[in-house]
């Protein structure tokens, strides 16, 4: 497509994704109270179970409303993830053929659970991460945390984990449409490890080593699984190409035999 058509398609897909996120945000508004209590539970547990003073505080009169919008939008992104993930993939592979459409559907079928799994992993490590980080508080000091700062930390952590879990799926998808080979990825495994570690260090909110470790380890495992799948797909593609060449040669030999007769 021409550049103008690409830009028009990008605009349309962004518009569809934005509508999906807005509708998801409306749904997130109704889920705000239980989700807000669940995300605040690690701080409440520190105060109630460990005997250390810890609480979340609103710094301004508008902070409760800002928090409502922030959490609702976050929930909207999660709820609408099947829509915007498909729009991203469909934009990357325009003019999909029937086989590639099946690949796109497989991408969504895998990407959405992995995105949610990344968020789930972040949720599992959140209490431990909060507990470890607040243990550095000196004696006779209290953790009176601004609620906006805390929820920004939590939501960034979950989004970072969710998006990070999508990267290996994107890698496999690009391999399936022939844009990158498994051998090319495998040759650059050292660079891959470095980039994953760098991404984990940048994405982990607060810059603590604990969050970086929890993000980097499963992400590296997923990347190497993705490399294995790419190599298997390359081998399957090579077998099919060899079979096609053999069929063409057999057809040519048969034609030559007929001509000789």
Strand coverage percent: under 5%
Which bin fits the share of residues in helices? Answer: over 70%
Note the run of SSEs as H and E: HHEHHHEHHHHH
Report the end-to-end length measured between terminal Cα atoms: 50 Å
Largest sheet: 2 strands, parallel
Overall average residue pLDDT: 77
- Gyration radius (Cα, Å) is 25 Å
Low-confidence stretches: none
Derived structural class: mainly alpha
Number of domains: 1
Strand order of the largest sheet: 1-2
Q: Looking at the structure, what is the overall shape? A: elongated
Notes on the protein architecture:
The protein has a two-stranded parallel ribbon with strand order 1-2. The protein is elongated. The chain has one domain. Helix content is 82%, strand content 3%. The chain has 261 residues and is mostly helical. Helix 2 packs parallel to helix 5 (98-134), helix 5 packs antiparallel against helix 7 (167-176) and helix 9 runs antiparallel to helix 10 (209-260). The protein has helices at 3-30, 32-49, 63-79, 81-92, 98-134, 147-164, 167-176, 182-187, 189-203, 209-260, and strands at 54-57, 143-146. The mean pLDDT is 77. The chain crosses the membrane at residues 12-32, 67-92, 104-126, 153-176, 188-206, 212-232. Keywords: Cell membrane, Membrane, Protein transport, Translocation, Transmembrane, Transmembrane helix, Transport. This is Sec-independent protein translocase protein TatC.
């Amino acid at each position: 497509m021409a550049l103008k058509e690409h830009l028009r398609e990008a605009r349309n897909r962004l518009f569809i994704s934005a509508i999906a996120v807005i509708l998801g945000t409306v749904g997130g508004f109704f889920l705000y109270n239980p989700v807000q209590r669940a995300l605040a539970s690690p701080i409440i547990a520190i105060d109630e179970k460990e005997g250390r003073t810890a609480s979340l505080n609103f710094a301004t009169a508008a902070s409760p409303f800002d928090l409502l919008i922030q959490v609702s939008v976050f929930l909207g992104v999660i709820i609408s993830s099947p829509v915007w993930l498909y729009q991203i993939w469909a934009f990357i592979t325009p003019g999909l053929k029937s086989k590639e459409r099946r690949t796109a559907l497989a991408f969504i079928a895998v990407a959405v659970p992995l995105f949610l799994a990344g968020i789930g992993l972040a949720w599992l490590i959140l209490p431990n991460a909060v507990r470890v980080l607040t243990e550095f508080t000196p004696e006779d000091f209290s953790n009176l945390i601004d609620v906006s700062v805390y929820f920004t930390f939590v939501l960034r952590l979950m989004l970072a984990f969710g998006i990070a879990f999508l990267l290996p799926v994107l890698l496999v998808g690009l391999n399936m449409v022939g844009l990158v080979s498994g051998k090319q990825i495998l040759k650059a495994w050292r660079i891959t490890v470095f980039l994953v570690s760098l991404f984990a260090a940048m994405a982990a909110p607060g810059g603590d080593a604990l969050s970086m470790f929890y993000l980097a380890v499963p992400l590296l495992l997923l990347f190497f699984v993705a490399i294995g799948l790419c190599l298997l797909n390359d081998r399957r593609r090579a077998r099919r190409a060899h079979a096609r060449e053999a069929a063409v040669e057999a057809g040519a030999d048969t034609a030559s035999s007929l001509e000789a007769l």
